[in-house]
Design brief:
The chain is α/β, with parallel strands linked by helices and 430 residues long. It is 41% helix and 16% strand. The chain is built from 17 helices and 15 strands. GO terms for molecular function: hexosyltransferase activity.
Length: 430
């Protein structure tokens, strides 16, 4: 390795749910693994989050956490999660921390998840200072492949203020999806100020398991209680669990087909009283767990999976061969419903509206998923048509972006050229 290590920072505001953190953590692992070979430089970095990560979240070597004082959304307004201070004071504290770390750690690459200026524009001044103090730093806005309804999203972009300022602070936009499934530009969700800087990476699907802690047991034998005669299992997951109670209640009451067990994973953010309700409703062949380390592996091993339609769970499903039924939330945002509808149209999953959700409806869909091999093959065919290589593409984009300013060796450019097919860099017209 030559020169000093590349410094990478990944920021997410993390008010509700685990999606932003899980996405950035997967990216951190793949950047740490791939960038040294692409740039001939070691990598070190920070994962900046508003959540206190549990043991199931494993950092790559050379990375550390920076945990900001938490925020929560109450009646549409961000408030302190735990600190007994005003939200204005909390904003000052978070901005001060961000300003200090960006100034002193001085990342070569900063990846911001979803909200370019963070909560209440807490990143705006720190970003401007980073630009002045470290002009070679590169700043990327990472976006899910679905944001929300165009009207809602455009209002959010408009609230950011001057387009020229946004263009000065953000070098590129990486969309973690496949434009053939959902095109932000075509739907009107894309930020107009940055549209010409957008690149579709493909879904962050294949390779997510390297960011996961393992519980040391194979899924089926552990659940069957008999390693010599393991039963296949059905898996229901509600992601982080903060808004999945309707699905969890219905799933817990499902009559499990003979020869199968059912694992219901509520997510760590489900309220304790609600978790107790779900556990009490579960039948004798159903196991209810708060979390299950190694979720992508368990999805691979399941006979069928029922899930909400958050980005990370969906990408884990797309990387598997497991038949899947998505039951997306439809409030307060339509993001999950839009995603699930687009993927059903692509033939990659099945869809059940939350208005049609019941234990009986889930039982009917399970009968099809477990008994109709043709339906399973149809989903697998749909998935194979999608770009699922985002975790390979992102380090290539990062190396190319950094090469413009950091004088990375020519071996990096050669490597990029040889991976042109994997990169499939897609320019979105203005």
């Amino acid at each position: 390795m030559t020169s000093a290590p590349l410094r990478v920072a990944l920021y997410s505001h993390d008010a509700k749910g685990l999606g932003h953190l899980r996405r950035n953590l997967a990216l951190a692992h793949h950047l740490a693994r791939a960038l040294p070979g692409l740039t001939d430089r070691d990598v070190t970095g920070l994962v900046i989050t508003g959540l206190a990560p549990g043991q199931e979240y494993r950092l790559p070597d050379g990375f550390d956490w920076l945990v900001l004082p938490g925020v929560k959304k109450s009646e549409g307004v961000y408030q302190p999660q735990r600190l007994r201070i005003t939200r204005e004071h909390l904003g000052d504290v978070r901005t001060s921390l961000l300003s200090g770390v960006l100034s002193t750690f001085a990342p070569d690459l900063l990846i911001i998840d979803r909200h370019p200026y963070g909560v209440h524009q807490e990143l705006r001044e720190p970003l401007a200072h980073l630009r002045r103090a470290h002009p070679a730093a590169r700043v990327v806005l990472g976006l899910r492949e679905v944001l929300d309804t165009p009207a809602t999203v455009q209002r959010e972009w408009d609230e950011l203020g001057e387009a020229d300022t946004l263009r000065r602070l953000i070098d590129e936009v990486w969309v973690y999806g496949d434009a053939s499934v959902h095109d932000l530009s075509a739907t009107g969700e894309a930020p107009a100020a940055l549209e010409e800087r957008m690149h579709y990476t493909g879904y962050l699907a294949h390779g997510r398991d390297i960011a996961e802690a393992r519980d040391g047991s194979e899924a089926s034998p552990a659940l069957a209680g008999n390693a010599l005669d393991p039963e296949p299992f059905i898996l229901t997951t509600a992601g982080g669990g903060s808004d999945g109670i309707n699905l969890l209640r219905a799933a817990a009451q499902v009559r499990v087909p003979d020869g199968y067990r059912h694992v219901v994973v509520t997510g760590p953010q489900l309220d304790a009283a609600l978790f107790h309700q779900v556990a009490q409703a579960a039948g004798p062949r159903t196991v209810v767990r708060r979390s299950w380390p190694g979720m992508s592996r368990h999805i691979q091993q399941a006979a069928a999976v029922i899930a909400m339609a958050g980005y990370n769970t969906v990408t884990e499903i797309l990387a598997s061969e497991t038949p899947a039924l998505l039951v997306p939330r439809e409030t307060p945002r339509l993001e999950q419903f839009i995603r699930a509808s687009a993927l059903k149209k692509a033939g990659a999953v099945d869809l059940l509206r939350v208005t049609d959700l019941s234990a009986t409806a889930l039982e009917d869909r399970l009968t099809t998923m477990l008994g109709d091999q043709e339906a399973g093959r149809h989903q697998l065919t749909g998935r194979r048509r999608l770009r699922l290589d985002g975790l390979t593409t992102v380090p290539l984009l990062a190396a190319e972006l950094l090469d413009d300013t950091n004088n990375a060796p020519t071996t990096c450019l050669t490597h990029l050229t040889s991976h042109a097919t994997s990169l499939t860099r897609m320019e979105i017209p203005a």
